[in-house]
Amino acid sequence: MAQRGAYAKGVAKREEILDTALEVIAREGYAGASVQKLAAAVQLSPAGLAHYFGTKDELFTEILRKRDELDFATYRAETDVDPARVFLRVMRHNAEVPGLVELYTRLHAQASDPDHPAHCFFAERRASMRALFGDIIEADARAGRYPADLDTASVGLLVTAAADGLQTLWLQDPTIDMAAELERLLAALGILPHERSTTP
């Protein structure tokens, strides 16, 4: 029983660290997310923080994983489970948390190294996004809106790449409306019918 109790406390502390780190990065930006600051925010030493996550890159990878979980749970509830609409709501929210967008783009670039802790995270994320849009398009293909031989995986990959590229450009030029540009692309692809699009 003692071991199970200690395990449960460890899981709860990891969740507290991730939740707090998301708040700190959203509030103070990527530059303000030092290990020392994140550790202090949860009453730990840097060594204590390393006990739960090992390295800074491992911590940052889990922060991104937690961010995705929270975003999709939050916006799925607000958009009648329309996956494309959920995706757009997340992109709109990202404009409010530039520190998390910078964290994402930095780790995304670094994760090209197969040994980087975020490499598997981004591979899994890419696959899930391809599947998400693939499912939408396959359903519409069956309804006759797309050619039956349309490469749905390719479309999902391209939409994901467009979203990632927009985030990188937005960090350089915050006047870019990421969600509006992505919505135009989804409407042009037929993933969002024009009559339902909210972009002028």
TrEMBL record:
<dbReference type="Pfam" id="PF00440">
    <property type="entry name" value="TetR_N"/>
</dbReference>
<feature type="domain" description="HTH tetR-type">
    <location>
        <begin position="11"/>
        <end position="71"/>
    </location>
</feature>
<dbReference type="InterPro" id="IPR050109">
    <property type="entry name" value="HTH-type_TetR-like_transc_reg"/>
</dbReference>
<dbReference type="InterPro" id="IPR009057">
    <property type="entry name" value="Homeodomain-like_sf"/>
</dbReference>
<protein>
    <submittedName>
        <fullName>TetR/AcrR family transcriptional regulator</fullName>
    </submittedName>
</protein>
<keyword id="KW-0238">DNA-binding</keyword>
<dbReference type="InterPro" id="IPR036271">
    <property type="entry name" value="Tet_transcr_reg_TetR-rel_C_sf"/>
</dbReference>
<feature type="DNA-binding region" description="H-T-H motif">
    <location>
        <begin position="34"/>
        <end position="53"/>
    </location>
</feature>
<dbReference type="InterPro" id="IPR001647">
    <property type="entry name" value="HTH_TetR"/>
</dbReference>
